[in-house]
Design brief:
The complex is a heterodimer of chains A (630) and B (101). Chain A has 630 residues and is mostly helical. Chain A is built from 26 helices and 2 strands. Classes of the chains: A mainly alpha (630), B mainly alpha (101).
Chain lengths: 630, 101
């Protein structure tokens, strides 16, 4: 098959799947899920054939959409190393999650709709990744946000899910405004929105002629605001933990290959441009370091398994942006890919546990004996967790080394601290599940089976094949994705990848192992207290548990004033305008009734009053005009 | 005989007519009252014309007009009264208050 038809098939399959499932088979769940999984399979095969068969840098396949003056705005499919690798990963992980959902969502009333939205999500993300112009990318960027809104709020009868969906939509929208303004400025500055053209323009050293450095800083900063919103960086990160209200497969998709990855992918897409904006990159670096540490502290005390993973996503996205901001396209991109594997794996494991135990609470899961009953899933969880923690020779280790190796010294210390916390909270999670201790000080927030997220009890095999197969596939990916680094670098045209030497790698390895050991002492060993060192300082514990009070602060600073203003407006509307209009109507009505009373229907009364009035007029006018006999 | 006497006479007839129109219930009597008022006005015109006007013909023309109009008005009014009577079997003004507010 030709490259064009492959690329088209890859992008159109999920759209068709989504459309058919949503419009025709929303209530015929088996058909809907079958169509969607088939469309996912088409995408995977096509993207793999493109990646392995098409060679690199096929270029863009475009069609003109419209022109502004002489400037054509094109829609197209861009096929180069960056898009083809990312696209294949997105398609693969989406397929894994779709297969997993077959079992996970088996008893849900609305799973036809669920699968339709999954395909919509996959379609928007794939189209975003393969976009050849920034305008097209922006459109699909928004569609990704829309699809995530649908999926986070999938259980729309749950008020918390609706609130989380709205929060995710609005928070990312704040960033999108920045992105859109940046897009317009970029178009005004360079006169094109074509991604290869922009990349060529900024490829060399130094700025292209006629473009002021300040302008590039501004554009990069505005684009970065969009990235902050989408990739959940401080200060717009608060939507991501709440997005856990969606079904677990959605979280897996949202956190690994789609939604949040879109932000980082945008930075990798325009890395050349960003590299020309040193000031913005400096900001990006420190925001990323800050976010990585901040969210790690939150993960240290979270008891909800999905929330631990959500915070870890925020911090790992911080790592990716650190690498990109420090100038290493390869490090950021590589971590984006490896993270996609192990984070999807971790979420799918979490989903399997939640599905089986009926609780999101780590301690409850452990005490319910989940680890004993689900051995393979537990092994996969340990693999994924180790990859996340940066334990040597798993995926996360290689990419994290690349990132830490590329950082300047100040940021490196921050990143190492975040890496330590990552190892600590990851293994805290694992030990709480694997080595439950009924006598420990840990308190369950939410006992097992108390509240299953979709309200069903499941009596089937603990590890159905549909759930186990994706988990195993992703576990292989999480273990092995680190070894394709050179190949990724080759595809990205990075001729020489600096592999850090063993002495450079040592601090990160030591720190990761230290984190694990620390977690072992507090949570893993026999008779451990299982409460964590943070709990010794109650104020800090509360600070972390309440997520640094950021939600409260936003509530007071932004939400309340808006609500206050809205209530003011509604007051003005109800009391002012409405009552005013009512008063006019009532006055008219009352006046009418009063006048009507004088309409007695008695003819002679009318004539009498008419004569009295005419006589009075005649007398006054007569006297005024000279009075009397004239 | 002076102008004042004529004017007082006309006023008396006018007031009688007015009383008829305002005070009685019977539509035909009211019509008679209107005729009386018209005639009072005619007398007024003639008197003023006789004593004051430089050209006597003007007043006479107006009076002729009034007589003509009165005849037409009487015809229309009587036909209205007739049709009211056909509908209600009564020509009392007390029953005609559909337009009461």
């Amino acid at each position: 098959m030709s490259t064009e038809s492959l690329a088209l098939a890859l992008l159109i399959a999920p759209l068709v799947g989504s459309f058919l499932a949503l419009v025709f088979f929303r209530r015929k769940h088996v058909i809907a899920s079958g169509i969607v999984v088939a469309s996912g399979l088409v995408s995977v095969i096509a993207s793999a054939m493109l990646l392995f068969g098409a060679g690199h840098d096929v270029g863009a396949i475009t069609a003109r959409w419209f022109s502004i003056g002489d400037t054509p705005i094109e829609f197209g499919i861009l096929l180069d190393g960056r898009t083809m690798i990312m696209g294949a990963v997105v398609a693969l992980i989406t397929l894994c999650i779709e297969v997993y959902s077959l079992s996970y969502m088996k008893h849900d009333e609305g799973r036809g709709r669920f699968f339709a939205f999954l395909a919509l999500f996959a379609w928007s993300m794939l189209s975003f990744v393969y976009s050849s112009s920034l305008l097209q990318a922006f459109i699909f960027w928004e569609l990704v946000g829309l699809a995530s809104f649908f999926l986070i709020g999938f259980w729309y009868e749950k008020p918390s899910a609706v609130a989380a969906a709205k929060k995710a939509f609005i928070m990312t929208r704040i960033g999108d405004v920045g992105l859109f303004i940046g897009l317009i400025l970029l178009f005004m500055t360079t006169g094109t929105l074509d991604i290869p053209a922009i990349n060529t323009l900024f490829a060399g050293d130094g700025l292209p002629e006629g473009i002021a450095p300040g302008r590039i800083e501004l554009i990069a900063a505005l684009l970065f605001i969009g990235v902050i919103g989408k990739s959940a960086q401080f200060p717009l990160h608060t939507w991501l933990p709440d997005a856990m209200e969606g079904p677990t497969p959605v979280s897996a998709l949202l956190h690994s290959a789609t939604m949040v990855a879109a932000g980082v992918f945008l930075v990798t897409r325009f890395h050349g441009l960003f590299m020309n904006a040193q000031q913005t990159m400096e900001w990006m670096l420190w925001i990323a370091v800050g976010t990585a540490i901040l969210s790690s502290t939150m993960a240290m005390v979270a008891k909800d398994m999905k929330r631990v993973l959500a915070f870890s996503s925020i911090s790992q996205l911080g790592f990716m942006l650190m690498g990109l901001a420090a100038g290493s396209l390869f490090a950021g991109y590589f971590h984006l890919i490896t993270h996609a594997f192990f984070k999807a794996l971790l979420f799918l494991c979490a989903g399997a546990f939640i599905h089986h135990v009926g609780s999101n609470d780590l301690i409850a899961m452990g005490r319910a004996g989940a680890a004993k009953q689900m051995k393979l899933t537990t092994v996969a969880l340990v693999i994924g967790g180790s990859a996340l923690a940066g334990i040597p020779f798993l995926a996360g280790f290689f990419s994290k080394e690349q990132i830490i190796g590329s950082l300047p010294i100040g940021a490196k210390i921050g990143a190492l601290f975040a890496a330590f916390l990552t190892a600590y909270y990851t293994f805290r999670m694992i030990f709480l599940i694997v080595r439950p201790n009924a006598d420990s000080m840990a308190v369950e927030d939410e006992p097992a089976h108390a509240q299953h997220e979709d309200g069903h009890e499941h009596h089937g095999p603990a590890e159905p094949l549909a759930m186990l197969a994706p988990i195993i596939l992703l576990a292989v990916g999480a273990a092995g994705a680190g070894y394709i680094g050179n190949w990724i670098g080759h595809k990205l045209h990075i001729e020489h990848i600096e592999h850090p030497s063993i002495t450079e790698m040592a601090p990160a390895i030591v720190i990761a192992i230290l984190g694990v050991v620390f977690a072992w002492l507090e949570f893993g060993r026999k008779g451990a207290r299982q409460t964590g060192f943070v709990s010794k300082i109650p104020s800090m514990q509360t600070l972390f548990e309440r997520r640094w009070y950021l939600d409260e602060i936003y509530n007071v600073v932004f939400v309340r004033p808006v609500v206050w203003f809205a209530s003011l407006c509604i007051g003005a509307e109800n009391k002012g305008f409405d009552n005013g209009a009512d008063a006019v109507a009532h006055g008219t009505y009352k006046g009418g009734r009063m006048v009507a009373r004088s309409h007695s229907g008695r003819l002679q009364f009318y004539i009498g009053s008419a004569i009295v009035v005419v006589a009075a007029l005649a007398l006054t006018l007569g006297f005024r005009n000279g009075g009397g006999a004239g | 005989m002076t102008l004042g006497v004529w004017l007082v006479f006309a006023l008396a007839i006018f007031c009688l007519g007015l009383y008829c129109v305002l005070g009685r219930r019977n539509l035909i009597v009211i019509l008679i009252g209107i005729e009386l008022m018209l005639n009072a006005v005619s007398v007024n015109f003639m008197a003023v014309n006789y004593y004051l006007a430089p050209d006597p013909s003007v007043g006479q023309i107006v009076v002729l007009f009034i007589i003509g109009l009165a005849a037409a008005e009487a015809a229309i009014a009587l036909s209205i009264i007739l049709s009211v009577y056909r509908q209600r079997k009564s020509i009392s003004i007390a029953n005609l208050e559909e337009l009461k507010g």
